[in-house]
Amino acid sequence: MSTGTSPAEPVVEIRGLHKSFGEREVLRGIDLRVDEGEVVCVIGPSGSGKSTLLRCVNLLEQPTAGTVRVLGTEVTDPDVDIDRVRTHVGMVFQQFNLFPHRSVLDNCTLAQRTVLRRSAAEAEAVARRNLEAVGLGDRAASMPGQLSGGQQQRVAIARALSMDPALMLFDEPTSALDPELVGDVLAVMRDLADAGMTMLVVTHEMAFAREVADRVVFMDDGVVVEQGPPDRVIGAPEHERTRAFLARVLDPTHRHDDA
Q: Residue 141 — φ and ψ, nearest 5°?
């Protein structure tokens, strides 16, 4: 997939990232890069700054200090055209954020027509192809309220993919779902990874991270504690904080309160 960057240039490059909300410093000097075609999963306890990190990547949160480059553009530059950058970045949130009064098909074509200026026919063809890819080709005429949570999240993924992104950001995409619906969403994300999509994923699904990620990043208290291949970070973590976190979330009696 072409991202418009040279092979040596990362899709995401974060240096010295700080973010404070009032007196509370949530991110305390994050350095992170994501290369083309790489799947990076960010794990860590609640309040560690994972979601804030993700939101800084496409400037939904304004960093306090540091630089963030996305697809070769410094989004922390005051003069950046962030809307142009965002057209190449898909984001899927914990909540589905679908327009409840619009059909599934409309949800997947609206931004294509208004932002990418695609014709109605082209936008519909792209949307139907992506709905088919997430297993919802037969629900194009449905309203979001007629779908399960897992189906709505898959529509949200199809909507993001319909913009032909070079980078996908996922912020705990399964945390609002009933357990039996999680698998279908993770299967779609697994297919995306297999297809070579560059992905930065905040997740508490350790089995998914271990299977799909090229690299796992463990965050705690606003810093990156350790990162590396999933077999090392999840299977044989070096730091006590990582071991303590994994002991909690991998305990079958634990209910993800810390993830």
A: -90, -5
Going by C-alpha positions, the residue among 71, 59, 58 that lies closest to residue 10 is 71
For residues 94 and 171, the answer to whether their CB atoms sit within 8 Å is yes
HSE-up of 88 (CA within 13 Å, CB side)?
Answer: 19
pTM: 0.91
DSSP secondary structure letters along 72-123:
TEETTSTT--HHHHHTTEEEE-SS----TTS-HHHHHHHHHHHTS---HHHH
Angle at 37 between CA 175 and CA 158, to 5 degrees: 50
For 19-46, what is each residue's pLDDT tens digit?
A: 999 999 999 999 999 999 999 999 999 9
Distances in Å between the Cα of 164 and the Cα atoms of 4, 147, 149, 172 are: 13, 24, 24, 21
